[in-house]
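USER: For my understanding, would you kindly supply a protein sequence with its C-alpha cells?

ASSISTANT:
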Amino acid sequence: MTLWIAIVAVAAVSIGFKAAGPVLLGDRELPPRLAGVIALLAPALLAGLVLTDVTGPAWSGVDWTLCAGLAAIAVTYVLRVPVLAAILCGVVVTAALRFLLL
C-alpha cells in the first residue's frame, strides 16, 4: 500500500510541476538546462520506484526471475523492438524461468 501512496505522491508532484510552469513563466520559455532536468525527473523517479519494489528492503527480497525479465525488456528495447513486444518478451522470460526453477 505504501508503494501506491508514493506513486500517487510522485504523480501529484509531477502534475504540480507541469502546472506551475505555465503559471509562473507565462509565455517565456524555460532555459534549456532546466527543461532537460524536468524532462529527466519522471523517468528517474519511476526507475527508483521500480528498483525499490523489485529488490525489497535492504536488497533482501530480490526476485532474480523478475530481474531477468526486466533485463530481457531492456535488451529488446535497445534492439528497437516495439515497447509492447519488449514487455511481452520480459513477461515470457520471467514466466519461463519461474516455471523451470520453481
